[in-house]
Amino acid sequence: MIRSIRWRLVLAGGLAIALALALSGMGLAVLFERHVERVAVADLQARALALAAMVQPEAETGARLRAPPDDPLYDQPFSGHYWQVMLGSELRRSRSLWDYTLPSDQPAPAPGETAVRTLPGPRGEPLLAVEQSLVAGREAVPLRIILASDRDELALARRGFLGDLLPYLGLLGAMLLLASWVQITVGLRPLRQVGARVAALVSGGRPRIGQDLPTEVIPLATQIDELLDARDRELGRARHRAANLAHGLKTPLQALLGDAAELEARGEVEIARNIEAVAQQMRRHVDRELARARLQSGRDAQSAEPGRITTRLIGVLRRTPLGAGIDWRLSAPPGLAARIGPDELTEALGALLENAMRHARGTVRISARRKDGRILIAIQDDGPGVPEAELERLTQRGLSLDPSGEGQGIGLAVVADIVDAAQGELRLRNAHPGFLAELHLEAAPPAFQGAAPSPFPKSP
């Protein structure tokens, strides 16, 4: 999972969302606490003004405090709501303070001003306190009013707010994570499209990736297409060099065989046969390299119809002395196409049909059909078959089991090379009676089916 771009992006997005929501929750909690504190301060200021009505001016003393208004909130001892009024030396306290006096050691604010402080309560708890300073009467007697409330109520309100907020933050986080997953999926879809086109390249559905892609992945597609072009050019040059080398050796070998025949005519039989054996072995190598050079190594999108090619090959073989006496039985539905070049399939089927013709007693059966999404081509003769010990060695170059000695021992090896290049499979076994050769090839993509085979099939 750590190598997945999708999961890396999801993990990074999830962490970013979690961090953002955590910071948002903390910020909202701070803002809520400040808002609640401002509301509490405003309420305490309003109550302070109501307590200022306790001051009654008098001609003799200048002012005095009368009985406070009834308020059950301040009558219950240690209720968390307290007030304290000092007029000159006279001190009045709410019943809730009991025998506790709020500390007033800090300087009083200027007359008409308000100060917000944190004071210790009767039980040591922190209190949010608002202190109002006024002057009363003609004598300008200083009036100091302190109203306080327990800060635990503010903390309780904050916790309640967070308790209500967290489910919504969780829901918001889940929605953002889902949106992030959708965004990542949509964003990575072009990569999946490139992957599908690469798979189409392998299967032969496309010759190149193309440029009809999102802008961000076009450079990648261009580089891949250029790499494929360079590979095809290099493989083409390699095939040409191999073909040129094989053709260059074929003529001298033919001359060497002619010299061996001349030596044999002069009576140098042993030397002639040694030269001929070496030349024949070298010729088999050359013929095989010529066949390999004809293979389509570029894996371009091609298709070939086994029925058409087999029909033409049978027509050629029937004109030979051996083929004229064979009962050729072909069963292949029209339109069946394998993903292989027509020339390559002609080369492979020609070798297999010629092999079946040499070993058959009188009948060769050929069938082509679709099986498990692939094309199965079966060629069976009614001959004696092959010794079981030799089955695994049939595709080895130079091995010929033809009792007449006409075979060169490269036909099945070439067929194996052709099928392997087409990413297919060659299976050989005894059919009791006879010998069975099966070609398992990939089916051609629908867009390439119906391609015409080579108009000039190779002579087997």
From TrEMBL:
> What SMART domains does its record include?
HATPase_c (SM00387)
Please list the reactions this protein catalyses. ATP + protein L-histidine = ADP + protein N-phospho-L-histidine
- Give compartment(s): Membrane
Q: Give an example GO molecular function.
A: phosphorelay sensor kinase activity
Matching SUPFAM superfamilies, A to Z?
Answer: ATPase domain of HSP90 chaperone/DNA topoisomerase II/histidine kinase (SSF55874), Homodimeric domain of signal transducing histidine kinase (SSF47384)
Indicate yes or no for the key word Ribosomal protein: no
Q: Where does this protein chiefly localize?
A: membrane
Q: What is this protein called?
A: histidine kinase
